[in-house]
Amino acid sequence: MKFFIDTANLDQIREAQALGILDGVTTNPSLMAKEGITGRDNIINHYREICSIVDGDVSAEVIATDFEGMIKEGEELAALDPQIVVKLPMIGDGVKACKYFADKGVKINMTLVFSPGQALLAAKAGATYVSPFIGRLDDVSTDGLGLISEIRLIFDNYGYETEILAASVRHTMHIIDCAKIGADVMTGPLSAISGLLKHPLTDIGLAKFLEDHKKGN
Ligand code: E4P
Question: Which of 62, 163, 164, 214 sits between 20 and 30 A of 155, alpha carbons compared?
Answer without folding.
Answer: 62
